[in-house]
Every structure is written in C-alpha cells, then in structure tokens.
Amino acid sequence: MDGELRGKGLTRKGVFAQVIACLYICKQSLAYKMRRDVFQAIADPTRRGILVSLTHAPQNINALADQFDMTRQAVSLHIKILQECGVISVSRDGRQRYCTLEAGELVQVADWLAPFREMWESRFNQLDTVLHELKSKSKDQYDE
After folding, report:
1. Domain range for residue 30?
2. Which terminal residue of the chain has fewer beta carbons within 10 Å of its beta carbon, N or C?
3. Which class for 82: exposed (0-12), middle (13-18), buried (19 or more C-beta within 10 A)?
C-alpha cells in the first residue's frame, strides 16, 4: 500500500490528515443540519434555571455552576446545549467564559404560547363576569 501511495505522491500521514479533515467537515455539516431548537433549551429544569439566572446579567460558568447541585461539567453540558439552541452566547475574557442571554430566540416560545394565553384570558374574563353577577345578586338579596 505504501508503494501505491508513494507512486501517487502521497504519504500515510497526508492521507490520514485528509481523512480527518473530511470527517471534521462532515461532522460540522451534520451538526448544522441537526441544530437544536429553542424548545429543547427550555425542556430541562436546569436549563430553564440557567436562563432565569442570565436575565439579570451575564455570568461566568463557575458562578452559574455554584447555583446548581451538580458538577461544573454537567452545567457546562447544559451551557453547550443552550448555546446550540441559540438562546445564549458564550464569550471569553481571559480564562473566564461568560454566558449572555440571547432572548430573541425565546420569541418562538411566546408565539407558540399565544393561543393558550388567549384561551386562558378568555376563561378568566368569563369567570370575572360570573363572579360579578353572583356578587351583584348577593348584594341585591342583602339590600332587600
């Protein structure tokens, strides 16, 4: 096999590097196609907690990890998923990695919840009407 490679001007090391580069490109392409969505971000209670923590200010990963009863590695995995979902960004400042909330992606959740919100508001309005009617009836009976 070495003779065949040399005859084509290739070495094992060069072919191996090309295979690795190809695998890397394929992996990146697949990761892009399988991008996570915002609903995966909010599917886990820890990730929801991280998002709530980031509403106040950007935080480094160690500060976030201190807020949860799990290892730093487990929190880092949740951070990675949140970043893949596009709901946070991670930036470096020296040796520290800071997480910042990117709330724009969460609009998808608000849009999805809108019909349910409207339904509940309608039901609460109906309940208000019934309660006012009952209150006015009991007031009328008390006045008589």
Report:
1. 1-34
2. C
3. buried
